[in-house]
Amino acid sequence: MIKSLDPRVNRASIELENPIEPLKEMDQWETFEVFHQKKRGDQHMHVGIVHAPNADMALLFAKEQYGRRGLSVNIWVVKTRDVFTTDYDDSDIFETVPEKQYREAGGYKVMDKINKYKKSVKA
What we know:
Layout: H1 7-11, E1 30-37, E2 45-52, H2 55-67, E3 74-79, H3 111-122
Antiparallel strand pairs: 1-2, 1-3
């Protein structure tokens, strides 16, 4: 069993029974998108990318790279390959109806009832 001298690794309880295999010449680590939360209740914001051999190490790298510079209470890492996007050619899916009259209250026929109620209250 390999014992790490780094207290962050020990605190994260990463299994060192199965150490990371050494990299071959052409192997590359995966990329992980990093999101952090400045304070509880805020939304997570994308802050960058880290390269790591697995998710546990990605969390440690993200904490070191993005958590030490500013206030952070939570960090997420997501494999870049698991993030799905739309193509710019499909931008028409975001087009909406230019007229939004259905949102306006003018279409409702209640003014007569409101005026009748006001008159009854005054009397």
